[in-house]
Amino acid sequence: MCLGIPMQIRSIDGLIARCEAKGVERDVSLLMLEHEELAAGDFIVAHLGHAVEKITPERAAEAWALYDEMLAAADTP
């Protein structure tokens, strides 16, 4: 199963964004969203190092709540 990870853009340099999720930072390609208006503070879904969708902060929080539930369930014997 493949999951996109909601991340917040911290900075943008050309078509590369420095993004953060849960304290982890990664460089993410913005090539697939090159026609979107993106700025530091925006949220995207990252998949395999590429931003695939711009999302709202609320949608990012909902996704992380679900991921946290899945991780908690996986830790339960």
What is the topological layout?
Blueprint: E1 5-13, E2 16-21, E3 24-29, E4 43-47, E5 50-55, H1 57-75
Antiparallel strand pairs: 1-2, 1-4, 2-3, 4-5
Describe the structure concisely for a colleague.
The protein is of the alpha+beta class and 77 residues long. The chain contains one helix and five strands; from the N terminus they run E-E-E-E-E-H.
Overview of the molecule:
This protein is of the alpha+beta class. It has one domain: Roll (SH3 type barrels). Helix content is about 25%, strand content about 40%. It is built from 1 helix and 5 strands, in the order E-E-E-E-E-H. The chain has one helix at about 55-75; strands spanning about 5-15, 15-20, 25-30, 45, 50-55. The chain has a 5-stranded antiparallel β-sheet, covered by helices on one side. A hairpin with a 2-residue loop joins strand 2 and strand 3. It is elongated and about 45 Å long. Pfam families: HupF_HypC.
Quickly list its features.
77 residues, alpha+beta, SH3 type barrels, 5-stranded antiparallel sheet, 1 helix, 5 strands, 25% helix, 42% strand, elongated
Secondary-structure element sequence? EEEEEH
Q: How much of the residues is beta strand, in percent?
A: 35-45%
Unreliable runs: none
CATH architecture annotation: Roll
Strand order, largest beta sheet: 3-2-1-4-5
Shape call: elongated
Quick check: average pLDDT? 94
Subunit organisation of the chains: single chain
Task: Work out the count of structural domains.
Answer: 1
Secondary structure: number of strands: 5
Measured between the Cα atoms of the first and last residue, the distance is 22 Å
Give the biggest sheet: 5 strands, antiparallel
